Amino acid sequence: MKEKHFIDSHKGATGLAILGLMNHFEQWDNPTAWVYLALHGSYGLLWVIKSNVFGDRNWEKPTSVGYGLLIWTSLTLYWIAPYIICSQGIQMPLPWLAACISVFSLGIFLHFASDMQKHTTLSIRPGLITTGLWSRLRNPNYFGELLIYLGFVAIPLHPLPLAALAAMVFGYWVPNMRRKDHSLSRHQGWQDYKAKSWCFIPLVW
Question: Is residue 25 classed as helix, strand or coil in its secondary structure?
Fold first, then answer.
């Protein structure tokens, strides 16, 4: 099996998991739970579509069932937010939900548009991508994903979902971006590109 099989199955199951939580804690009349379901559930479906249309080659690597289940379990940390919302019956003010939806929407654009640009560019010309969304940011897809998950985990205003996101960012995303920089450093023009671009978050790093 490939890593993508475990990742895709988890992303695709997220909407069902949230519906299960809503049913278990009888949150059918909770607007905040419905908003969370719409955001995280739709993202999971979009990810599965992306994976099968213009997927990331990094997830095509064969993996053992044990490591695949570790991936699946790690991704379940992202279900902490809907559990807190449903188990505690949290209902957030509409302006806060609107702000979270806006952050999520910007993240969706950056993540999927940059992945599409990467997929199409590399299929034509392998090497550095230094145009479009990648011109000033070396990982616009990761930045978009950060905004997506911030839109999720900020909804309940609880520290645990934020801590889970931070653990994923610093435990996996940042090391992966550093490995990618090291791999790209062999390409001509790397030093100039690195000097004029941020790695992950604009104006920060």
Answer: coil
